[in-house]
Amino acid sequence: MKATVKITYLDNSGFAVETENRFLVFDYYNPKPKGGRLSQGVVNPEDIGDRRAVLFVSHSHYDHYHKGIFQLRDQVPHIGYILSDDVKCKPGADVLLVAPDGDYPFDGMEIHTLRSTDLGVAFLLKADGMTIYHGGDLNWWHWIGEPEEKNQSMARRFLAEMDSLRGMDIDVAFVPMDPRQEHNYLLGLNAFMERANARHVIPMHFGRAIEAFDWLEQDPRADGYRERIVPLTRRGQQVTVTI
């Protein structure tokens, strides 16, 4: 049975994923403008309604986490938080702290964590009959000017995590694509696409450099999977995919 899922781009690596029963939020860090709505990239309780809200935080970097997410507790009756264990917060019955390479049941979902090549975790979860991957800062961070030994170590660590996804069917994947890496901006995305069977793929972590999608459109390295890419043009953009 096919189902539709609405996805809203919240900024950087932040997304809201709406299923029939759940409102899932990943790496939400920008709550401005105050009182904004989902169409502006702001998570508003009125947009959540009566659905169960679950907020995922892959790590504590400022562009992935904002402590204001806990203010939603006062306005959303059914809410939970799944946070990388490097995030400093007050514990609560609605908070689950997760470590890399773990498996966690939570509110009827199955959550697996991968080890980031930067900080924290990436998420692989099964919920409402679909599989979602959110990479956090798990990426092939090959920087021009870095010592070759460091870049090679990064490659080994990243590819080891990607190999754990080999052959896996994923309905929606959020994968870093950072243009600051210049020609290497597709290293991580390419490696992911070579291993996982991902149906809908949304690049992230491009900051304000939306022109990275123009690069992707012209880059021959993406020829084998370009039709599965969901392009983004602005914060608050909403897309609907069928799974």
> Order of strands in the sheet with the most strands?
6-5-4-3-2-1-13
- Unreliable sequence segments: none
Going by helix content, strand content and strand pairing, the class is alpha/beta
- Between the first and last Cα atoms, what is the distance in angstroms? 9 Å
Order of helices and strands: EEEHEEEEEEEHEHEHE
What is the number of strand segments? 13
Our count of helices gives: 4
Largest sheet: 7 strands, mixed
Helix content range: 10-25%
Average residue-wise pLDDT: 96
What share of residues are in beta strands? 25-35%
Backbone shape? globular
Task: Explain what the structure shows.
The protein is α/β, with parallel strands linked by helices and 243 residues long. Helices cover 15% and strands 32% of the residues. The protein contains four helices and 13 strands. It has helices spanning 45-48, 148-163, 187-195, 212-218, and strands at 4-11, 14-18, 22-26, 52-57, 79-84, 95-98, 103-106, 109-115, 121-127, 130-134, 169-176, 197-204, 238-242. The strands form two sheets. A seven-stranded mixed sheet has the order 6-5-4-3-2-1-13, with no helix packed on it. It is globular, with a radius of gyration of 17 Å.
Brief descriptors of the model:
alpha/beta, seven-stranded mixed β-sheet, 15% helix
Topology, element by element:
Layout: E1 4-11, E2 14-18, E3 22-26, H1 45-48, E4 52-57, E5 79-84, E6 95-98, E7 103-106, E8 109-115, E9 121-127, E10 130-134, H2 148-163, E11 169-176, H3 187-195, E12 197-204, H4 212-218, E13 238-242
Helix pairs in contact: 2-3
